[in-house]
Inverse folding.
């Protein structure tokens, strides 16, 4: 086991994944293991321990590698959606495939676990309000199913810096690579607080046979929780046993979270256990227990995930539906700033309250645009020579009577008067209207683009 572990770490380091890191400790890779893992020469998780002080940012003091703000400052209030791309790296002998169905089921499992969906194994957890979907548009604006396959034995064996050839802009996509994962069930090269989010090497790596529901690796690691665990790291979470029993302030020791009990080391299997004077967090996704026994992220882990997204991955997630008021649809295309402009809405769906505010983020800078609305949805790529997608169907109405400007930040805030709508329009209770911003993008040719669409059912 020790030899295998050494080879694993050597492979990781030679791939450059840990070039900025102190070597992982034996604890982080699981010096203790199970017969299942030992027979296969696998370690549970190859994510290195995080060395506080090694981050590359000037982070807010309450969301760092060694500090977590437990207050409501980072409480989720709206769903943030992350777009996922799978890269399946097969061996030249044909092994190592992951079917589309398994990729889709893995997305389902992520949503069940991160949103603690009722009626699923993840229901006991706290709802992080983080959502995942497979990419429908690639970085060049082409349609995709979000699953790419490559046959390359070096890449299949997790070598060759494949991410430099394959990564989809890691600022905007969660890149999940499925291969041999260097002898682990999975790993990330670093936590965002200590690495380089947005670089090509920013990724989740998962053992191909452990991806998806009823995965071929078999019990006890066949229910997709390897990816849930690694995405937890990707969103800033430490192992629950990081730092052992810790001591002192539980927000600045151990896993920097107080509502996950400290434990002396990783816990395998499914039984309850105690250490550090209390019960071990054996049902937490960030321990090493069996897939069927993991069923929760905690409230404070949720807040750490949200602050990580806010400060270290600001362009990764898109808000969905502005606090539940509206529903986003019809993803936008990249514009000249390399971002996808998004439309969000806040306020009340009750027309008589008259307090809607639409906001646009990540549009091209200092450009004009119009907010459009329609009772009908559409999905026309490149309509009228636009770079964007027309998400509305005819007939359309120019909602913003005046031209809106995206300003120096590529943002727009628009609060319409619902008692005085254009063309004598009235929003009736029960009606669902669709909205979208069309805007100029002078760098591109054609010189216009669009946000995604958002639909609102009024009351
Ligand atoms: Zn881990």
């Amino acid at each position: 086991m020790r030899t295998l572990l050494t080879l694993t770490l050597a492979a990781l380091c030679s791939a450059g994944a840990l070039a900025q890191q102190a070597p992982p400790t034996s604890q982080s890779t699981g010096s203790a293991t199970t017969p299942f893992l030992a027979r296969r020469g696998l370690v549970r998780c190859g994510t290195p321990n995080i060395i506080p002080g090694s981050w590359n940012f000037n982070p807010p003091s309450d969301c760092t590698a060694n500090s977590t703000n437990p207050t409501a400052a980072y409480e989720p209030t709206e769903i943030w959606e992350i777009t996922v791309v799978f890269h399946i790296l097969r061996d030249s002998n044909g092994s190592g495939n992951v079917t589309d169905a398994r990729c889709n089921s893995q997305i389902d499992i992520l949503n069940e676990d991160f949103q603690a969906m009722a009626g699923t194994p993840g229901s006991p957890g706290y709802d992080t309000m983080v959502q995942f979907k497979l990419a429908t548009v690639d970085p060049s604006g082409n349609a995709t199913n979000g699953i790419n396959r490559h046959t390359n034995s070096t890449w299949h064996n997790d070598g060759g810096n494949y991410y430099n050839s394959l990564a989809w802009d890691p600022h905007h996509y969660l890149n999940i690579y499925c291969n041999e994962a260097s002898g682990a069930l999975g790993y990330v090269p670093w936590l965002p607080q200590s690495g380089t989010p947005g670089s090509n090497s920013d990724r989740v790596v998962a053992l191909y046979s452990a991806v998806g529901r009823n995965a071929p690796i078999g019990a006890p690691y066949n229910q997709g929780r390897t990816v849930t665990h690694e995405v937890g790291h990707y969103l800033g979470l430490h192992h629950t046993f990081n730092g052992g029993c810790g001591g002192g302030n539980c927000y600045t020791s151990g896993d920097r979270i107080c509502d996950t009990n400290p434990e002396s080391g990783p816990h395998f299997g499914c039984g309850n256990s105690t250490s550090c004077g209390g019960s071990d967090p054996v049902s937490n996704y960030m321990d090493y227990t069996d897939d069927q026994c993991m069923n929760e992220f905690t409230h404070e882990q949720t807040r750490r995930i949200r602050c990580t997204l806010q400060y270290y991955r600001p362009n990764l997630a898109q808000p969905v539906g502005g606090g539940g008021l509206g529903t986003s649809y019809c993803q936008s295309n990249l514009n000249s700033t390399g971002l996808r402009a998004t439309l969000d809405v806040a306020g009340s769906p009750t027309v008589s309250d008259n307090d809607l505010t639409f906001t646009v983020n990540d549009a091209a800078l200092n450009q004009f645009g119009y907010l459009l609305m329609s009772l009908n949805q559409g999905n026309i790529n490149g309509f009228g020579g636009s770079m964007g997608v027309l998400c509305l169907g005819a007939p359309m109405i120019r909602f913003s009577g005046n031209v809106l400007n995206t300003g120096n930040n590529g943002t727009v805030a628009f609060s319409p008067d619902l008692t005085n709508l254009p063309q004598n329009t009235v929003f009736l209770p029960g009606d669902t209207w669709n909205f979208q911003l069309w805007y100029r993008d002078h760098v591109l040719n054609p010189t216009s683009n669009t946000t995604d669409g958002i639909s609102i059912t009024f009351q």
Q: What stands out?
A: Confidence is low (pLDDT under 50) at residues 1-31, 51-57. The radius of gyration is 23 Å. The pocket of zinc ion is lined by residues 45, 47, 229, 233, 239 (CB under 6 Å). The chain has two domains: 2-312, 322-457.
